[in-house]
């Protein structure tokens, strides 16, 4: 791996994004790719690279496949590192994007299984992602495969298109609209335009078009839309300005009838079975919602939707009063049916549960990062859009101690994000921030004397930014190194590129250098992430992470060095070899998770869109978790950050109701204190 370029700036020593030297190939470890069923990642031989090598199953067609990224179309050199201690040739077909480019290629015997050799060839690749597969042509399977070095086609296109022009809406109906925008320019040509609603991609059109007709929309609903351009090499523009487009009210104004009698049965500590009578509607019922007051616990959909469900994720030993309403395609809502009341069974856990919540501090506007001082005398709290930093005492008294220079917003999720305090603060007075700047996202260091910030120093830059998907959480691990979560900047391919800083958990020294022992000899600790915003270490020193999904599943992951967490191939659990599945996942409407904290071996996860706090118990010292349960559903709005209070069975919990997605305005956010008993 090429060393990171080092720039000497007046602000201090700055580590730029890692840039491969012109002669250095990119290494793709076989164990991080996909492989045939029965193939294993082994470590029982010497001299391999990365975290292991692939030992294929003994069968015709046994395979290993890696996905490489080429900056441009053309010829590329690949070197396949292998070992074959059998004494006989183990031939394999080498294919690129499904086309065999070297049939029954020889992988001859090496001296023993500890001796590795390179098989090199030149292949034609297209711009962007390319699949390189080795498939055995005999029943003996493949040789052991360590990695593939890829030297991409020269003269690649690295210039991103310009941002699309401001979008506008026309031909608006109750279920559709036409979105139009100004054309982007690109040195080679725009290949595609991607349309986003907030941070979720909803469609794409050809680069020759500058409009998209969106259908299947909900009546009388506001959609916040932006457009991004990308070229054939995979370069993605910054987002266009956003536009709010509101569909027309439905011409159907007749609500469904009230649902029939609701009954509850099989009440446990965390669940209940519900059943009700069907509603009728002049156009048809599209869904039922299980509610407590106006807070939606679950939506039941279908054609027609069912009239029973098992409601899970309930808090133990807690009273509930639930009703059901019916909805139609016009957004009309029926009167609620009868209410059922019950109390869930007694808690059966030694991890404790939330027992009380009190307001600690008010009048905040998007408090984002929270980190306690080592002496527990106070915590530092950042505000995302004001770029201000506050000292907050245990009783909630706050004092501004400064602002972070050079921070900018993205009119989305960027700005002043995470904060961390050096474990050796008493002697070095260092604190760390992650923020969005003019060129991208940065990790910076400042000095803090207990009352004021000073000495802004950039440690790492070159982390791409966009309107959404900027990550931003910082945390010190028990190893003394600084961990940072980065989003893929609305460019999904970056998550799988181990030479990119985006879509990753990064691990670095307090001087901004890659931490020793990182799996790929750069900043990257784990990869395949979409938009990770929660980091917390458990009592065994293991790192847990919460991550926004796109439209299917949000995730809670146990992070391991060198592991691939799947995006964009996987969202939630999948069966793709080489991808690491989450320990728990949720529909995006129930979570959209940001911060996490661990108290008494329980993960507490704040949910933004889901407007609830999830409690996920870790099962002893295993890698498994128990049943997630939800607290405060809809009670406090969008929940952002969870931070354990040192020396107490308690945590701080902050809201984000003052952002573009919230119902509050400036000064509407709060920090709560939650006790665990």
UniProtKB/TrEMBL annotation:
Chain spans, region Disordered: 21-44
Keyword Signal: yes
Domain of life of the source: Bacteria
Keywords recorded for this protein, A-Z: Carbohydrate metabolism, Glycosidase, Hydrolase, Polysaccharide degradation, Signal
Protein name: Glucose dehydrogenase
Signal peptide stretch: 1-16
InterPro entries the record matches: 6-blade_b-propeller_TolB-like, CBM6, Cellulose-bd_IV, FN3_dom, FN3_sf, Galactose-bd-like_sf, Glc/Sorbosone_DH, Ig-like_fold
Domain CBM6: 26-151
Composition skew (Polar residues), residue ranges: 33-44
UniProt xrefs under Pfam families: CBM_6, fn3, GSDH
Domain Fibronectin type-III: 163-250, 258-347
SMART domains reported for this sequence: CBD_IV, FN3
């Amino acid at each position: 791996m090429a060393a990171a370029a080092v720039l000497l700036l007046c602000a201090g020593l700055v580590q730029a994004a890692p840039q491969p030297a012109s002669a250095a190939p990119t290494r793709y470890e076989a164990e991080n790719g996909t492989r045939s069923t029965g193939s294993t990642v082994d470590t029982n031989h010497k001299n391999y690279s990365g975290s292991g090598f692939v030992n294929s199953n003994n069968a015709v067609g046994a395979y290993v496949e890696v996905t490489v990224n080429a900056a441009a179309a053309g010829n590329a050199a690949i070197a396949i590192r292998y070992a074959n201690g059998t004494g006989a040739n183990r031939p394999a077909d080498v294919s690129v994007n499904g086309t065999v480019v070297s049939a029954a290629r020889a992988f001859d015997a090496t001296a023993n299984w500890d001796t590795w050799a390179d098989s090199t060839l030149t292949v034609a690749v297209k711009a962007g992602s390319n699949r390189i597969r080795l498939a055995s042509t005999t029943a003996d399977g493949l040789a052991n495969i360590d990695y593939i070095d890829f030297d991409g086609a020269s003269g690649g296109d690295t210039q991103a298109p310009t941002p699309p022009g401001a979008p506008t809406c026309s031909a608006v109906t109750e279920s559709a609209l036409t979105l139009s925008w100004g054309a982007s320019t690109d040195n080679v040509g725009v290949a595609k335009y991607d349309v986003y609603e907030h941070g979720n991609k909803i469609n794409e059109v050809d680069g020759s078009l500058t409009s998209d007709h969106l259908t299947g929309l909900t009546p009388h609903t506001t959609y916040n839309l932006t457009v991004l351009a990308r070229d054939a090499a995979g370069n993605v523009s910054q987002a266009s300005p956003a536009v709010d487009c509101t569909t027309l009210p439905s011409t159907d104004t007749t609500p469904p009838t009230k649902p029939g009698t609701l009954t509850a049965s099989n009440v446990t500590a965390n669940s209940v079975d519900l059943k009700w009578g069907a509603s009728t509607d002049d156009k048809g019922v599209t869904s039922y919602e299980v509610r407590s007051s106006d807070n939606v616990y679950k939506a039941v959909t279908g054609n027609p939707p069912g009239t029973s469900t098992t409601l899970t994720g309930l808090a133990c030993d807690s009273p509930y009063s639930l009703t059901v309403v019916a909805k139609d395609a016009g957004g009309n809502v029926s009167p609620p049916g009868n209410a059922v009341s019950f109390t869930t069974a007694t808690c059966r856990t030694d991890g404790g549960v939330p027992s009380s919540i009190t307001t600690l501090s008010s009048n905040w506007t998007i408090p984002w990062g929270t980190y306690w001082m080592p002496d527990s005398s106070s915590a530092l709290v950042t505000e995302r859009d004001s770029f201000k930093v506050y000292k907050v005492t245990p009783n909630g008294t706050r004092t501004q101690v400064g602002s972070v220079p050079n921070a900018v917003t993205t009119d989305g999720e960027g700005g002043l994000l995470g904060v961390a305090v050096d474990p050796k603060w008493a002697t070095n007075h260092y604190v760390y921030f992650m923020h969005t700047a003019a060129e991208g996202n940065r990790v910076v260091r400042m000095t803090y004397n207990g009352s004021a910030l000073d000495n802004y120093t950039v440690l790492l830059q070159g982390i791409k930014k966009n309107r959404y998907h900027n990550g931003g959480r910082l945390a010190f691990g028990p190893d003394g190194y600084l961990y940072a979560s980065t989003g893929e900047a609305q460019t999904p391919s970056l998550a799988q590129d181990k030479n990119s800083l985006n879509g990753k958990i990064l691990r670095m020294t307090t001087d901004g250098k890659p931490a020793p022992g990182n799996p790929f000899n750069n900043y990257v600790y784990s990869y395949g992430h979409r938009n990770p915003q929660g980091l917390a270490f458990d009592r065994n020193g293991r790192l847990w992470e919460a991550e926004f999904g796109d439209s299917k599943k949000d995730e809670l992951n146990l992070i391991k060095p060198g592991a691939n967490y799947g995006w964009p191939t996987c969202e939630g659990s999948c069966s793709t070899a080489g991808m690491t599945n989450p320990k728990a996942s949720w529909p995006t409407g129930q979570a959209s998770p940001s911060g996490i904290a661990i108290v008494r071996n329980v993960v507490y996860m704040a949910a933004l869109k889901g407007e609830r706090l999830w409690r996920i118990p870790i099962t002893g010292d295993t890698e498994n978790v128990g049943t997630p349960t939800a607290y405060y559903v809809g009670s406090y709005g969008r929940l952002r950050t969870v931070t354990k209070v040192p020396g107490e069975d308690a945590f701080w919990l902050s809201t984000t109701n003052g952002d573009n997605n919230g119902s509050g305005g400036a000064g509407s956010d709060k920090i709560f204190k939650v006790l665990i008993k």
